[in-house]
Hints:
Belongs to the TRAFAC class OBG-HflX-like GTPase superfamily. HflX GTPase family. By secondary structure, this protein is an alpha/beta fold.
Amino acid sequence: MFERYQGGESAILVHINFTDDSEREDLEELKLLADSAGVTTCAVVTSSRAAPQSKFFIGTGKVEELSSLVHMQQADVVIFNHSLSPAQERNLEREVKCRVLDRTGLILDIFAQRARTHEGKLQVELAQLRHLSTRLVRGWTHLERQKGGIGLRGPGETQLETDRRLLRERIKYILKRLEKVSRQREQGRRARQRNEIPTLSLVGYTNAGKSTLFNRLTQSDVYAADQLFATLDPTLRKIELPDAGPVILADTVGFIRHLPHDLVAAFKATLQETRDADLLLHVVDCADEQMRDNIDEVNSVLEQIEADEIPVLMVYNKIDKLDPPEPRIERDDEGNPRAVWVSAQQGLGIDGLLNALNERLAGTLVEHRLTLPPSASRLRSRLYALNGVVAESFGEQGEFVVDIRLQQADWHRLLKQEGDRLQGFVSD
């Protein structure tokens, strides 16, 4: 479809230091992104500007320097740590004679490599097509020609119009498929809500260690690596907490600075797990120099997806990189856990995290001692089925003395079904 230079494995990175803080990007993050995409960085070009140049984004002198570097290093692709317009990409490719990719295109490429499930692949394709559709505007000259030849004459539709139509049709098809997936996810969420099982969602900046922590808590083997966007597809597992009972833990895609809006929109179904969570575990790489900025960026994305009102427990991960590594629990003015310091890799502080989760979730628990006659064996069986029996003994008359701890919703449901009879069994 496109008469463009093909990408490759050897890349030159371009990073501009802007005077405006809101436009600034992190060069080290670009290197990590390039590494995650599987390309080898052969050179880095940096420059300082007050604002982007309209034609090339960088100055003409830097364009000449970039062109000679591409020729000298035999580079396959030039990657900018910024968002380029379609015209800027085209003008740069014409000058440097190789493929030019911006930050958004690089992130989309990584997502395309990482997607494993059918839903994930559809979401990535949708984001890529939406990004691609902007690249068709004022596109390459061959796209403006009318089709000709046997079997192609008649409609008078230019290649550009055909490509736009095909893109629209494909986007419409993917949206339809994702809507079906979204309905299926919604059914699963409703089933969990009916069972009153709390959901915990891991959120955080990419490469903060969410999947490693997920594996540590659930004894799973979800793919985890020291690279950006190792996880794309949401993974859910049930875990048992000593006091709070069963909970669902969800591992989600990591966030990143200036996350493309197309990606946020495409991954709406995935991020729904975050929006519907009862508690967010905000995982932070405490050894990262950009820690505060990363926290602000995650909070910004949570606001975008309307998940900023959900209760949060901060989890400061990778304390093994600090000296000394000190696992601990921080509490607010009311004595509730506010933050936990752990190392998911080394297993440090995990018991403290579980205790903090128990405290945060156990507020919804009720505890009672019931004295049940032998005729109430059906109710006793239900209490065991709900994992609500903590201890049991027998009275002098053969009655069951049962200590229970239940989710508040389960207790109210039992009261509604059993009525005053159940209240009569309460002996505490």
